[in-house]
Predict the structure of Polyisoprenoid diphosphate/phosphate phosphohydrolase PLPP6.
Amino acid sequence: SSTAGPLPEEDCMKLNPSFLGIALSSLLAIDLWASKRLGVCAGENSAWGSARPLMKVIEVSGHGIPWLLGTFCGLCQTDSSAAREVLLNLLFALLLDLVLVAVVKGLVKRRRPTHNKMDMFVTISVDKYSFPSGHATRAALVCRFVLRHLVLAVPLRVLVVLWALIVSISRVMLGRHNMTDVLFGLVLGYALYSVVEYCWLSPLSAPALFALW
């Protein structure tokens, strides 16, 4: 009415959102739209539905359980002290990755894309959340670790990088994640390797741990 006084300052703020808020909302909308368009293997009836079985094999290749089991088995079977040190640190890196991703997912609580089919390989409670992509984080972490600590020919090094990229891209194609989930996961995994390198476990820094093996 004409007799109403001016709006309180907090109400004015709600009616006039900041430029940063508008920019973030716009980026989020673009992220959701692009992620849905790129989810070409999200279902059997999707544009690339016939490639979905292959994408699910790639999904398993980046899952934590095969990596943890493979690393643990290698650690138990190796007789080389140098190989034991590398594998023990890889196991530490994988466990640290699982814990960190679970904590961030639990804090952010971003739901997975609506077009995702919840038929993922071995999930736990926090896997209902989307941010960040654990597969992308693990792919970047393992890629840096392998390139740093294994002596590989150039073609094999290229294959390792391609694997990390394909695993990450497959998360969006399967409709498991939005693009920002994957991009943040790659950055997080890349940075996480630096933490592992800084906390590197060796017979000098952790003699009791190496005595167990």
About this structure: DSSP finds nine helices and no strands in the chain.
